Protein backbone atom coordinates (compact mmCIF):
# COMPACT_ATOMS: atom_id res chain seq x y z
CA UNK A 1 0.00 0.00 0.00
CA UNK A 2 1.32 3.43 -0.94
CA UNK A 3 1.67 5.80 1.99
CA UNK A 4 -0.53 8.86 1.44
CA UNK A 5 1.30 12.14 2.07
CA UNK A 6 0.33 14.21 5.08
CA UNK A 7 0.57 18.02 5.09
CA UNK A 8 0.97 19.67 8.50
CA UNK A 9 -0.54 23.11 9.11
CA UNK A 10 0.63 24.96 12.23
CA UNK A 11 -1.42 27.60 14.02
CA UNK A 12 -1.82 27.80 17.80
CA UNK A 13 -1.84 24.01 17.42
CA UNK A 14 -1.22 21.65 14.54
CA UNK A 15 -3.45 19.67 12.25
CA UNK A 16 -2.58 17.02 9.70
CA UNK A 17 -4.40 17.23 6.38
CA UNK A 18 -4.53 14.26 4.05
CA UNK A 19 -4.86 14.39 0.28
CA UNK A 20 -8.47 13.31 0.76
CA UNK A 21 -9.08 16.16 3.24
CA UNK A 22 -7.84 18.73 0.74
CA UNK A 23 -9.83 17.10 -2.06
CA UNK A 24 -12.99 17.22 0.07
CA UNK A 25 -12.51 20.89 0.94
CA UNK A 26 -11.73 21.82 -2.66
CA UNK A 27 -14.77 19.92 -3.92
CA UNK A 28 -16.99 21.83 -1.51
CA UNK A 29 -15.35 25.11 -2.42
CA UNK A 30 -15.67 24.65 -6.17
CA UNK A 31 -19.33 23.73 -5.76
CA UNK A 32 -19.97 26.84 -3.66
CA UNK A 33 -17.85 29.72 -5.01
CA UNK A 34 -19.79 30.30 -8.24
CA UNK A 35 -21.14 33.59 -6.82
CA UNK A 36 -17.65 35.12 -7.19
CA UNK A 37 -15.81 32.63 -9.41
CA UNK A 38 -17.18 31.88 -12.87
CA UNK A 39 -14.60 29.24 -13.78
CA UNK A 40 -11.82 27.11 -12.33
CA UNK A 41 -9.25 26.00 -14.90
CA UNK A 42 -6.68 23.27 -14.35
CA UNK A 43 -3.16 24.34 -15.29
CA UNK A 44 -1.45 21.62 -17.29
CA UNK A 45 -2.65 18.06 -17.08
CA UNK A 46 -5.20 16.80 -14.59
CA UNK A 47 -3.42 15.18 -11.65
CA UNK A 48 -6.61 13.51 -10.47
CA UNK A 49 -9.97 12.76 -12.02
CA UNK A 50 -11.52 16.13 -11.13
CA UNK A 51 -10.33 19.75 -10.89
CA UNK A 52 -10.92 19.56 -7.13
CA UNK A 53 -8.15 16.93 -6.94
CA UNK A 54 -5.50 19.19 -8.49
CA UNK A 55 -4.40 21.14 -5.42
CA UNK A 56 -3.56 18.25 -3.06
CA UNK A 57 -1.38 16.68 -5.75
CA UNK A 58 0.75 19.79 -6.21
CA UNK A 59 -1.11 21.20 -9.20
CA UNK A 60 -2.52 24.62 -9.87
CA UNK A 61 -5.97 26.01 -10.54
CA UNK A 62 -6.72 29.38 -12.09
CA UNK A 63 -9.91 30.89 -10.65
CA UNK A 64 -11.67 33.51 -12.79
CA UNK A 65 -13.68 36.36 -11.27
CA UNK A 66 -17.42 36.24 -11.99
CA UNK A 67 -17.70 39.95 -12.85
CA UNK A 68 -14.32 41.10 -14.16
CA UNK A 69 -11.26 39.86 -15.99
CA UNK A 70 -9.43 39.23 -12.69
CA UNK A 71 -8.00 35.78 -12.12
CA UNK A 72 -6.05 34.16 -9.34
CA UNK A 73 -3.70 31.19 -9.07
CA UNK A 74 -4.36 28.62 -6.35
CA UNK A 75 -1.61 26.18 -5.37
CA UNK A 76 -1.21 23.71 -2.53
CA UNK A 77 1.10 26.07 -0.62
CA UNK A 78 -1.47 28.86 -0.90
CA UNK A 79 -4.25 26.45 0.11
CA UNK A 80 -2.32 25.37 3.23
CA UNK A 81 -1.68 29.01 4.16
CA UNK A 82 -5.38 29.74 3.61
CA UNK A 83 -6.32 26.85 5.88
CA UNK A 84 -3.94 28.18 8.52
CA UNK A 85 -5.48 31.67 8.29
CA UNK A 86 -8.96 30.15 8.47
CA UNK A 87 -8.00 28.49 11.76
CA UNK A 88 -6.13 31.51 13.15
CA UNK A 89 -9.14 33.73 12.47
CA UNK A 90 -11.45 31.46 14.45
CA UNK A 91 -13.43 30.27 11.44
CA UNK A 92 -13.55 26.62 12.57
CA UNK A 93 -16.88 27.26 14.28
CA UNK A 94 -18.02 23.61 14.07
CA UNK A 95 -14.75 22.34 15.56
CA UNK A 96 -13.59 20.22 12.63
CA UNK A 97 -10.06 20.21 14.01
CA UNK A 98 -9.48 18.02 17.04
CA UNK A 99 -6.31 16.36 18.30
CA UNK A 100 -4.33 17.22 15.13
CA UNK A 101 -6.96 15.60 12.89
CA UNK A 102 -9.60 17.12 10.65
CA UNK A 103 -13.20 16.04 10.24
CA UNK A 104 -14.09 17.42 6.81
CA UNK A 105 -17.74 16.48 7.24
CA UNK A 106 -18.21 19.72 9.20
CA UNK A 107 -16.56 21.91 6.55
CA UNK A 108 -19.49 23.00 4.43
CA UNK A 109 -19.50 25.11 1.25
CA UNK A 110 -19.26 28.48 3.02
CA UNK A 111 -16.35 27.28 5.16
CA UNK A 112 -14.52 25.83 2.15
CA UNK A 113 -15.14 29.12 0.32
CA UNK A 114 -13.53 31.04 3.19
CA UNK A 115 -10.49 28.75 3.14
CA UNK A 116 -10.00 29.40 -0.58
CA UNK A 117 -10.48 33.15 -0.12
CA UNK A 118 -7.91 33.19 2.70
CA UNK A 119 -5.59 31.25 0.37
CA UNK A 120 -5.96 33.72 -2.47
CA UNK A 121 -6.45 37.05 -0.71
CA UNK A 122 -5.30 36.62 2.90
CA UNK A 123 -8.82 37.56 4.01
CA UNK A 124 -12.45 36.93 3.15
CA UNK A 125 -13.24 39.39 0.32
CA UNK A 126 -16.49 38.04 -1.11
CA UNK A 127 -19.67 37.31 0.82
Count of β-strands = 7
Mean pLDDT: 95
Number of helices: 3
Tell the overall outline. globular
Termini separation comes to 42 Å
Topology order in helix (H) and strand (E) letters = EEHEEEHEEH
What does this structure look like?
With 127 residues, the protein is an alpha+beta fold. It has one domain. The chain is 31% helix and 23% strand. A 3-stranded antiparallel β-sheet has the order 3-4-5. It has a two-stranded antiparallel ribbon with strand order 1-2. It has a two-stranded antiparallel ribbon with strand order 6-7. A hairpin with a 5-residue loop joins strand 4 and strand 5. Helix 1 crosses helix 3 and helix 2 crosses helix 3. The longest helix has 14 residues. The mean pLDDT is 95.
Amino acid sequence: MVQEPIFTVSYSGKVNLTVEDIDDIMSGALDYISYWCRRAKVVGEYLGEYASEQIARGGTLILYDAESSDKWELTRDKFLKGFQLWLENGMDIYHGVSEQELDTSVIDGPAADCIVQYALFGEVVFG
